[in-house]
Amino acid sequence: MESNFWNERYSSSEYAYGTNPNDFLKQQNFPQNSRILCLAEGEGRNAVYLATLGHKVTAIDYSEQGLEKMKALALRNQVHVETVLTDLSQYRFQPEYWDAIVMVFGHFPPQIRQHILGGIYEALKPGGVLVMEVYSKAQLQNNTGGPKDLQMLYDAGELRAELSAFQDLNLQELSREVHEGQFHNGLSSVIQLIARKQI
């Protein structure tokens, strides 16, 4: 999808996916003062939440409109989030730099997804953690959010293979109620994942 699709989605004064952080992310505990990278972060609800906990947060998205709203949300919460406007298909990850990387409902064509997931492993410090919640292919049967293209949704087996460099990988596929703004709303088929890079 082009960035102008997302600019249009984020053009309203309302936050398309709300301003509260993702439920799965809220369950995680990161070491104090972690350096955290948030991918495909949109309007910033997760990045701002992590910054309020005292972490050093950088958020990447390719919607200028989304990043402007993220800055406004950060200002409202009296925190700082560094924002990077870029297309993740072109992004070069800094090696062994991040304590944690977060991707919540980041969906891409297979080739771009493989580039991103490979980059994530390289970008994490030894002992660093990846936290993801994404829609599974079963979500196509629901009308509660996420892409309508099967290729953009995740398969648990494929995801395990794409993240095989991680030796400590905890992945579960489940159905749960997701209530995040107007576009993620209702019973949803998701994959939740925590992967730690070996020290």
Helices and strands in order, then pairings?
Elements (H helix, E strand, L loop, with lengths): L2 H7 L13 H4 L8 E5 L5 H8 L3 E6 L2 H13 L5 E4 L12 E7 L5 H14 E12 L20 H7 L5 E13 L3 E13 L3
Parallel strand pairs: 1-2, 1-4, 2-3, 4-5
Antiparallel strand pairs: 5-7, 6-7
Tags for this model:
seven-stranded mixed sheet, alpha/beta, 199 residues, single chain, 27% helix
How would you characterize this protein structure?
- By secondary structure, this protein is α/β, with parallel strands linked by helices.
- The chain has helices spanning 3-9, 23-26, 45-52, 64-76, 110-123, 156-162, and strands at 35-39, 56-61, 82-85, 98-104, 124-135, 168-180, 184-196.
- It has a seven-stranded mixed beta sheet.
- Helix 4 links the parallel strand 2 (56-61) and strand 3.
- The longest helix has 14 residues, at 110-123.
- The radius of gyration is 16 Å and the shape is globular.
- The N and C termini lie far apart (37 Å).
- The model has no long low-confidence stretch (mean pLDDT 95).
Concise structural overview:
The protein is an alpha/beta fold. 27% of the residues lie in helices and 30% in strands. It contains six helices and seven strands; from the N terminus they run H-H-E-H-E-H-E-E-H-E-H-E-E.
Q: Quick one: overall form?
A: globular
Question: How would you write the strand order of the largest sheet?
Answer: 3-2-1-4-5-7-6
Give, in order, the helices and strands. HHEHEHEEHEHEE
Radius of gyration: 16 Å
